[in-house]
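# step 3/5: fold
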Amino acid sequence: MKELRLFWSILFTAMILAAFIVPYTPLLRNLTSFHGSFLFWNIFAIIVIICIGIITARWRNFDER
């Protein structure tokens, strides 16, 4: 359980860093600015929605018995 929590923590930290690093650095330089940022934010939003869906689908309250 702790390994899974650590995995999700690292994944969300990486996604938050990507949200700040990718748009403000020249990583999308070969694409036009509007299309590159639009594509990045759409893919980013889909990945975040999928990750949150996986987490909430496996949500358990271990205090109730």
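# step 4/5: annotate
DSSP finds two helices and no strands in the chain.
# step 5/5: archive (pending)
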